[in-house]
C-alpha cells in the first residue's frame, strides 16, 4: 500500500548551477562590477546566499540556519566551537588576502563563506570527535589546515567545493597533530601559540601568491554584427527602359500544382557590355503562382557574367526581393546590386519576360 502511494507521487525538481560551480567556471575571480552584479543577482545576491534561496545540495544552502544550529550545538557542548570558528575564519581571512591582492571587493571572502558546503562542513563534519584531535590546540591546527586546503583546492584544483577533501586530508594528519600537540596546554603554551601563528602566516603567504595567479573575468567585447555579403543600390523598375533593351527569351516552362516554373535566357554584361568571345546569356528559373498572382521565387541556374562581380546577383539578399511581387502591377521594382548593375538588370529583364508571358496566357 505504501509503495503504491510512493509510485503515485511525482516530485517537481528544478536544476541549475550552484554558486561554487558558477564561480569556478569563471576562474574564481571577478573584478568587473558590470559582470559581478549580474553574477550575484542570479543567486539573490549575498543576502540570498545567506538565507539559502539558491540551488544547492540539501542542507548546505541556508547559512543562517546552519549558524543557528551551530550556535545551539556549541552552547550545549555538543561540539567544540573553536573548530568551526577557526575553520571558517581561516577561509575568510585567506579569501580576503586574495581579494586584496587581486582587486576584488569584500564580496569575495563573503562568497567563499556563504557559498557551497563550507558552513555545513565546518559545523557538522569537521567537528567529528572521532576523527578530530583531542587537544584544543590540535583542533585549532586542524581547523586552520582545513581552511588553507579548502581555499587551495577551490581556486587551484578542479574540485569547486574543496570542503570534503580538505577535511579528509586533515583527518589523515590527525595522529601526527596529536603527537605534536601532546601536553601543549599545560607545558608548552608558547610553542602552541608560535606553531599556530606560523601556520597562519604560511597560509596567508600562500594565498598572496595564489591571488596573483588568478585571472579576473573581463567583459566580453560585443561581437560585430555580420556584414551583408552584398550591398544594394538604386531601385530598378521591372518595367522600365533598361529592361526593355535586349528582351529575354523563355526557353521552357513546367507546371507543379499551382506553380509554373519558367526557364529564361537573358543577356547580361558578358554579351551586352563585355564583348567576350563566345559569351553566353544568363539562365534564370522563375516560379510564379498564377492563382495568387505573384512571383514565388527567382533563381539563377547559369551565370556567364564576370566572376566575382556579376555573380553577386546570386545572393539571396538580391533574389529575395522578387519574392511576392505582383504579376499584374507595372509599378514593381528591386534594388540593383552595387557594382553589378548590368547583371542585375539582366535578371530583372528575365523576370519581366515571364510576367509578360503570364499576362498573355502562356
Question: What would you say this structure looks like, in words?
Answer:
This protein is an alpha+beta fold and 362 residues long. It has two domains: 13-213, no CATH class; 232-359, no CATH class. The chain is 50% helix and 12% strand. The protein contains 17 helices and six strands. It has helices at residues 2-8, 19-25, 33-41, 45-51, 63-75, 82-102, 107-114, 118-125, 136-156, 163-172, 174-180, 184-187, 189-213, 241-244, 269-274, 316-319, 341-359, and strands spanning 232-237, 249-256, 259-266, 282-289, 294-302, 333-337. A four-stranded antiparallel β-sheet has the order 2-3-4-5. Strands 1-6 form a two-stranded antiparallel sheet. A hairpin with a 2-residue loop joins β2 and β3 (259-266). α6 packs parallel to α13. The chain is rod-shaped, with a radius of gyration of 38 Å. Mean pLDDT is 80; it is low at 1-11.
Q: Rough shape? A: rod-shaped
User: pLDDT average, as an integer?
Assistant: 80
Please state how the strands of the largest beta sheet are arranged side by side.
Answer: 2-3-4-5
Task: State the order of secondary-structure elements, H for helix, E for strand.
Answer: HHHHHHHHHHHHHEHEEHEEHEH
